[in-house]
Amino acid sequence: EFKGVEMQRVVNHLNEVYETTQRSFRVQLVAGGYQLFTQPQYAEYIERLYSKKQQTRLSTKALETLAIIAYKQPVTRHEIEEIRGVNADGVIKTLLMRNLITIAGTADSPGNPYLYKTTDKFLEYFGLEDISALPRLKELDEIVAADAELKERLDPETLEELAPELLGLKQETDDQKHEQENTPEESE
After folding, report:
1. pTM beyond 0.85
2. Which end of the chain is least crowded, N or C, by CB within 10 Å?
3. Which domain holds residue 22?
């Protein structure tokens, strides 16, 4: 049985052997465990050979809700709805059924609402080692701001979705608040 540093040494050795022998895979730490991953240069071939049932894509609503939960966890449904501006019941039920989020307890507030947090399956879905591997919102802003080409390729809606203001994680200016108040509310 291997533990800690010894396990990491074994994994590093295996990955060196796999790379030297030009294997199509490598071992990677994900969600506190280890998984085999296909090397990116072989992905096209694996897709052709492996008739894996496509992983269903998440809707924009689900991704938005997951982002809120991931960055603010544990968080109540009410807090999610305040940030999104629309009812989140259906999206939360879907994310619970897909085991991407779980109930983390209850809040010490009237009605003791459920608190939601992400799961290991969330980490696996997005290929993250742990929740701290999420990009920092400041980093996302800097990437988008620094990459003029990215701005040109992304449609305005996608750029807006990257904005931390939508996640309630960055203070909005008075102009932005006024602008939001004067636009029709989005329905789910």
Report:
1. no
2. N
3. 4-49
